[in-house]
From TrEMBL:
A GO molecular-function annotation: RNA-DNA hybrid ribonuclease activity
A Pfam family recorded for this sequence: RNase_H
Taxonomy of the source species: Eukaryota, Metazoa, Ecdysozoa, Arthropoda, Hexapoda
Protein name listed in UniProt: RNase H type-1 domain-containing protein
Coiled coil: none
Length: 395
C-alpha cells in the first residue's frame, strides 16, 4: 500500500525517479532475470497503478501559491438553511425560494452535484434561469469530494465564460465538506488543485464585478433545482469516459486501501491453519471482537477466545499432544471436543437447558455452536461462560 502511495506522490513531483521506476518495471515484465528474483515493491506498485497516473496531479509548488493573494483577503461567503427549513420537502423548497427572493433578488443561482454510482463517478450543474444543464463523467477513482468540487469549478467557469451572472452569483451545493474547505481557505492551509481552482475562479469573477456566494443545502430533501442536478450527476456516471481534469493523488487512497483489504482477506482465507476459525470468521477485522463489549474478567476472555479458535483443553486436544490415550468422552463414547461438551454431552443436560433458554433470546433457532460464537453478543458469550463454570469445565 505504501509503495503505491509513494509511486502516486512521485508522479509529477519527481519525474526522474518515476521514469526510473517505469524503466525498471519494463525490465521486470520482460527480463527472465526477474523470473527467479523477487520483484521490487515499487515496480509492482507502478504496474498496478500506472494507468491511473495520467489522472492525478501533484505540484512541486503548493497550489495555494499559484493563486492571487487578493483572493484570500476577502473571505468567501458560505451560508446554510436552518434546521427547521427541512421539516418537509415543501418547506425546504419554499424556504430556499423565499431566501433567494428576499436577499438576493438579482442573483444567478446554479445548482451543482456530484455522484458515485455503479462504478462510475459523475457531476453536473444546472442553471434554472437559463435552463442550462451540463454533465461530466469523471475519473472512476475520483472521490465524491473531488466530484463535488469539480462541479463547482465548472459552474464558476461557465459563469465566467458566458457572463451568465450580472453582479451576483449563488452556487448551491450539498457538499458541506467542499464548502467548508473553501470558506476556511487561507494561505497557511494545504489545498488541492480543485480547491485552488475554485478560489482562482472566484477571484477572477470578482475582478469582473461578480460576487460569488455559496449556499449549503442538505441533499435529498426535495429541493427542485438540487433534485435536477442530482439526477443529471447520476446519469453522468454512465457517459463515455474522457479526461476532463486532473485529481489529487489522495483520491487513489480509497482504492489502494480496498485492494489491501481484499489481499488481506485472501491471505486469511487461504491460510494453512485454523480452518474452522476461518470458516466461522471469513472476514478479517481491524477491530478486536472485544471492542464493542463492556469489559469482563480475564477468564471470560480466555474461555471465549479458546472456544472461538477451537484451541480448548478437551480430550481430543490432550490426545493430540500425547497427554491422553483416548479422545472419547467417558460418558458418551463420542469424540470430546468443545462442540461435544457444550452442545451434546449427556453429562450436562440440565445446565444446557438453561444455556439454551438464555441464548434463545438473542439468536434465532435452530442454532449451533458456530452461530453462538459468530453472533459476537455479550449476553450469548456470558451465557456460555456461565454454562462452562456451572459444569466445571476448564477449557
Ligand atoms: Zn459426553
Amino acid at each position: 500500500m505504501l509503495a503505491k502511495r509513494m509511486v502516486a506522490s512521485f508522479h509529477a513531483r519527481n519525474n526522474s525517479i518515476l521514469s526510473s521506476i517505469a524503466h525498471l518495471s519494463v525490465d521486470v515484465l520482460t527480463n527472465p532475470y526477474w523470473a527467479v528474483k523477487p520483484t521490487p515493491l515499487l515496480c509492482n506498485a507502478f504496474t498496478a497503478i500506472s494507468s491511473d497516473l495520467t489522472w492525478i496531479r501533484q505540484s512541486d509548488k503548493p497550489y495555494k501559491f499559484k493563486i492571487d493573494y487578493n483572493v484570500f483577503q476577502e473571505p468567501i461567503a458560505v451560508s446554510s438553511l436552518p434546521q427547521s427549513a427541512y421539516s418537509t420537502n415543501e418547506s425546504a423548497n419554499l424556504f430556499l425560494a423565499n431566501l433567494l427572493e428576499r436577499k438576493y433578488p438579482n442573483a444567478t443561482c446554479i445548482y451543482t452535484d456530484g455522484s458515485v454510482n455503479m462504478g462510475g463517478v459523475g457531476c453536473s450543474f444546472f442553471d434554472p434561469q437559463a435552463n442550462v444543464k451540463r454533465q461530466f463523467r469523471l475519473w472512476d477513482e475520483s472521490s465524491i469530494y473531488s466530484a463535488e468540487a469539480y462541479a463547482i469549478q465548472v459552474a464558476l467557469k461557465y459563469v465566467l465564460d458566458t457572463g451568465a451572472a450580472e453582479s451576483s452569483l449563488i452556487i448551491i451545493s450539498d457538499s458541506q465538506s467542499v464548502l467548508m474547505k473553501v470558506k476556511s481557505a487561507n494561505p497557511s492551509k494545504k489545498m488541492s488543485f480543485l480547491e485552488a481552482e475554485i478560489l482562482r475562479l472566484v477571484g477572477l469573477l470578482r475582478a469582473t464585478g461578480v460576487q460569488s456566494r455559496f449556499i449549503w443545502i442538505r441533499g435529498h430533501h426535495g429541493i427542485t433545482g438540487s433534485t435536477t442536478a442530482d439526477s443529471l450527476a447520476k446519469e453522468a456516471t454512465q457517459l463515455p469516459l474522457r479526461q476532463l481534469s486532473v485529481f489529487p493523488a489522495s483520491d487513489l487512497n480509497r482504492s489502494i486501501k480496498m485492494q489491501l483489504r481484499e489481499d488481506w482477506r485472501q491471505m486469511h482465507i487461504n491460510y494453512h491453519a485454523g480452518k474452522s476459525y476461518i470458516r466461522a470468521f471469513p472476514n478479517p477485522n481491524t477491530r478486536s471482537w472485544t471492542a464493542n463489549m463492556p469489559s469482563r474478567s480475564k477468564s471470560f476472555y480466555r474461555y471465549i477466545s479458546r472456544v472461538r479458535t477451537g484451541h480448548c483443553v478437551t480430550r481430543s486436544y490432550l490426545m493430540r499432544i500425547g497427554r491422553e490415550s483416548t479422545d472419547l468422552c467417558q460418558q458418551c463414547l463420542e469424540r470430546e471436543d468443545a462442540h461435544h461438551l457444550i452442545m451434546t454431552c449427556s453429562r450436562f443436560v440440565s445446565q444446557r437447558n438453561i444455556l439454551f433458554q438464555r441464548v434463545a433470546e438473542h439468536v434465532t433457532s435452530p442454532f449451533n455452536l458456530e452461530v453462538l460464537l459468530t453472533s459476537e453478543k455479550i449476553d450469548v458469550y456470558e451465557a456460555l461462560v456461565h454454562f462452562l463454570s456451572e459444569c466445571d469445565i476448564n477449557l
